[in-house]
From TrEMBL:
Keywords: Membrane, Transmembrane, Transmembrane helix. It comes from Paenibacillus sedimenti. The keyword Transit peptide does not apply. InterPro entries: DUF6044. This is YkoS. The chain crosses the membrane at residues 12-29, 172-201, 213-232, 275-293, 305-328, 348-366. It comes from the Bacteria. Signal peptide: none annotated. It holds the Pfam family DUF6044.
Length: 562
């Protein structure tokens, strides 16, 4: 389809909007505000530690001494990930900014191509094609997932072209290249499963094998398996127990699962943010009513596709919620893979499904709703763009009074701490209280605590001895650590699940009970605490000095274990 001059102008307008959206990351640099959860507290540090460890291309059996006295190299993910490459060649904040740019550009391109060629070919529907593609590209995705969810429209465009036999070298290049900037477990395993089911459906209905289509599915799968060989080795091949072996996720009854289904359907999940609640969902419900009342679903393929997408959306939320039902627990205990791999993440298909449904709903209102339908469509798309700007990281996290990148990692402050200690960092171990261990790791300290996808189960059990009395004081913390343990932290019952007490906090710890003997046996010598410990001496802790810095969000109390 030839692109009209209006559509070209619309595309350039979308580019300008994305530049404005991304500009705080480049203009503010380390003073920018970005997501903390599963980002600053983990992934960004993992890339930095991995690159600096010298084990970027380490063997399957390699370890990283800086973390928990030797974290398995495999826990840091594949060396062939594009985001790791960015962090190898750029400072952490610059790498983050470029990763955001790459992901959003290809999210826009993929959704635009998918809509233009397969869902919204109407010559007068530029507003929908460009507008919905732009809204999809502005969604608050999980940063380290890269194109795991936002790349699915581009992959679907390629697969659908191959499916109907209208492919060129571009489709095959996309299928091979996407795995290098996405994750199998954070999106594409579930996407690949869905595409494979489409092939099975086609084979049954058409009674013929579409070999190029089948070949494309296998090709992407093989590329992922080659890239993610460390994951395969860690979760499938190796017999070494990890903290994931103790995961207990199926604890909900039917009523709790039903509530979670509704919650997920209406509000979504923070790992795959869709911001669909206030504009997209009402429009989709209105369109469902329109299709049913007018029996529109009987008359055209777009209506049927819209209904299918809406039902699939409900089904994905239902699957997500009921994966945590107690009925699964016996099976999860019998089959280890059901515990170590999160099959609930089929709901990671929802961003694709929701925004395709948004586009299909807009098309139906555009075609059949008259002037009011077209006005409603324009208002919905424009409103969604404005709404998504409110979810821009700089706006959202600054208004929530979260620390900036610079304030979070507090490099100058921790440099002062290192200089004050005056010993080679590799010669002692530290842990943190009221602070994410990632901060110490980012600044080169060797930590006994960490946040990682998986690590040695034996280490988890040993570390637990340090915090056993604190866990006994809090059922919530005990369940959190014992049935998950991804955060191997110095939990304190008085602090709960809060790890970011700022320097303005008045919080104090009055009854800390740590097993400092085990702490010392693991090599621990210092504890960084963001709050004062009033009974430090009863834990054989000596306050050496308090550190404050204008560019830091924290006041750090340096305790030495005697």
């Amino acid at each position: 389809m030839r692109i009209s001059s209006f559509e070209q102008k619309s595309l350039w307008t979308a580019v300008v909007v994305m530049i404005i959206y991304l500009s705080p990351l480049f203009i503010l640099g380390q003073d920018a505000h970005i997501r903390v959860h599963d980002n600053l507290d983990s992934n960004i540090v993992w890339y930095k530690v991995l690159i600096q460890s010298g084990e970027w291309f380490g063997s399957i059996s390699a370890v990283i001494p800086q973390v928990i006295n030797g974290l398995q190299r495999n826990a840091m993910g594949t060396e062939f990930s594009g985001i790791v490459v960015l962090h190898a060649f750029f400072p952490a904040m610059a790498a983050y900014a470029w990763s955001q740019t790459i992901t959003r550009v290809f999210a826009f391109l993929g959704m635009y191509l998918l809509l233009k060629d397969h869902l919204v070919p109407d010559s007068d529907a530029t507003w929908i094609r460009v507008g919905v593609a732009l809204t999809f590209a502005l969604t608050p995705f999980w940063p380290s997932g890269m194109l795991s969810t936002l790349g699915q429209p581009l992959a679907l465009w390629a697969f659908l072209n191959i499916r109907k036999g209208s492919w060129t070298w571009k489709e095959w290049f996309i299928i091979i290249a996407l795995p290098f900037y996405s994750s199998l477990v954070l999106g594409f395993f579930f996407f690949q499963t869905a595409i494979a089911l489409v092939w099975v459906w086609d084979t049954i209905m058409n009674k013929r094998w579409n070999l190029p289509f089948l070949g494309s599915v296998f090709l992407m799968g093989l590329v992922y398996l080659a890239i993610e060989y460390r994951l395969l080795a860690s979760l499938v091949i190796t017999n070494t127990p990890t903290n994931r072996n103790e995961f207990v996720s199926s604890r909900l009854n039917v009523w709790q699962c039903a509530r979670l289904t509704v919650k997920n359907f209406i509000f979504g999940h923070h790992h795959v943010g869709t911001v669909h609640t206030w504009i997209i969902l009402p429009l989709m419900v209105l369109t469902v009513y329109f299709c049913i009342v007018n029996q529109q679903w009987r008359k055209d393929s777009t209506s049927r596709l819209f209904i299918i997408l809406f039902v699939l959306n409900v089904a994905l939320s239902t699957w997500y919620a009921f994966w945590f039902h107690t009925v699964w627990q016996p099976l999860k205990e019998q089959f280890e893979l059901l515990t170590t791999f999160n099959f609930a993440r089929f709901h990671f298909l929802r961003p694709l499904v929701i925004y395709m449904g948004f586009a299909a709903g807009c098309v139906l209102l555009w075609r059949k709703g008259g002037s009011k339908g077209r006005l409603l469509t324009k208002l919905a798309v424009a409103g969604q763009i404005i709404l998504l700007f409110a979810y821009n990281e700089e706006i959202m996290y600054r208004s929530a009074n979260k620390p900036s990148f610079r304030q979070f990692y507090a490099e100058e402050q921790f440099q002062e701490i290192g200089e004050y200690i005056g010993e080679p960092k590799a010669s002692y171990r530290v842990a943190s209280i009221g602070l994410h261990p990632a901060i110490a790791q980012y600044n080169g300290f060797y930590t006994l605590d960490t946040y990682n996808n998986f690590y040695s189960l034996s280490y988890k059990h040993t570390f637990r001895e340090i915090i056993a009395k604190e866990l006994d004081k809090s059922k919530k913390l005990k369940t959190y650590f014992d049935t998950w343990g991804g955060r191997c932290y110095l939990f304190v019952a008085e602090l709960g699940k809060k790890y970011d007490y700022s320097k303005t906090s008045k919080k104090q710890i009055r009854n800390l009970e740590l097993n400092t003997d085990v702490f010392k046996k693991l090599g621990g010598k210092y504890i960084f605490s963001s709050v004062p410990i009033r009974n430090a001496s009863s834990n054989r802790l000596l306050l050496r000095k308090t550190f404050n810095h204008e560019h830091s969000a924290w006041k750090v109390y340096l305790y030495e274990v005697k």
